[in-house]
Amino acid sequence: MHIALATEPGDPQRPNEDYTSVALPASGQGGALVLLDGVTPPEGDDGCVHGVPWFTARLGGAMLELSVSHRDMTLAEALAAAISRTADGHRDSCDLSHVRTPQATVIAARWSGGTVEHLVLSDSVLLLERTDGSVDPVLDSRLDELPPEVQDLRAAVRALHRGSAERAALGREYGRAVEALRNAEGGFFTAAADPAVAARAVTGSTPRAGVRSLTALSDGASRWVEVFGEGSWADCVALVSGQGPQALIDRVRAAEAADPACAAFPRGKARDDAAVIFVAP
What we know:
Elements: E1 2-8, E2 18-23, E3 31-38, H1 52-69, H2 75-88, E4 104-111, E5 115-121, E6 125-130, E7 135-138, H3 148-159, H4 165-181, E8 202-207, E9 211-217, H5 219-226, H6 233-243, H7 245-258, E10 274-280
Helix pairs in contact: 1-2, 3-4, 5-7, 6-7
Protein name: PPM-type phosphatase domain-containing protein
């Protein structure tokens, strides 16, 4: 078995909101990985005194422990329980009904002698490399399928000069439009305080004999493919398996540095937190 992981904040002056972890049970049979990408809230009140890094550490730690120690639970059940446990940890001090309460995208995978299970919620990516060398991306595409008027608004924001008052004003309007669709019918879903969201995750299983490796990416790492178009998903797996997760993050940082104004490659953040987990079970 080979395991490698790396994560790096987009801004060294701000805490990293991504979370990465892998656990192997004492029996030595199987294992699990969990990757979370915390959602950065807009400036202002989010109803929580703790912040996103606290939330992702609590939720990710609970999800990993439940995935490994409760193999009788499905990954969706483990996520629901982890969300409930995390919510209970700050229910008395924070407003969990606030639309900006801390939340995160989720990737989880668990393998045993016979099966590889997976769960993906929101826009992080899990890559399944088959034994024949093909790569299947497991995606939750709902964030890319927002109503056309919201997608047009996003494009309009990204077309404006970064730092301009016009972009800031239109960005606030876009933010409100996205918030109205978060964890709502017809929109997209992230893990916040409602355990019912776990049922919305993309889940599945694959015979372990057909899986060569697993690569989990936050969107700050998957932008190497999805934003910058530097390679395919298969190229991404080859890079990570051959040179390690940090090599992918370094390539992303180079692409970001070459386009600091986001003119050639429009994106929400010039630099983003990035996280990569690679496992060859």
